[in-house]
Amino acid sequence: MKMLSDNGIGICFLPTYFRTFEISKFREILNDNDLFIEAILKTPESLLRKVTGIETLFVLVSKTKRKKNLLLI
Predict the structure, then answer these.
(1) What is the DSSP string of 8-69?
(2) CA 19 – CA 22 distance, rounded (Å)
(3) For 59, phi and psi rounded to 5 degrees?
């Protein structure tokens, strides 16, 4: 994420919402590094579940703090 431009958006491919945002405190780590969540998008259940058994998300990150996040899970 250090290579992210001021107007850019980074895409993180992560495990489910609970594991990412409650256990690892991913949001706090991002904010401590002046990065903010733009959106959280749930992937289709069949994307990796048959191979790994893990549900995943795409988290869009930017250097711009927004009042609201787009949450599509």
Answers:
(1) --EEEEEE-HHIIIIIS-HHHHHHHTT-EEEEEEEPPTTTTHHHH---EEEEEEESS--SS-
(2) 6
(3) -115, 120
pLDDT tens per residue across span 34-47:
999 888 888 887 77
Q: pTM value? A: 0.76
Instruction: Name residue, tokens 């869009």.
Output: 60
Contact 38, 61 (CB under 8 A): yes
Of all helices (H) and strands (E), which one includes residue 72? strand 70-72
pLDDT bucket at 24, cuts 50 / 70 / 90: confident
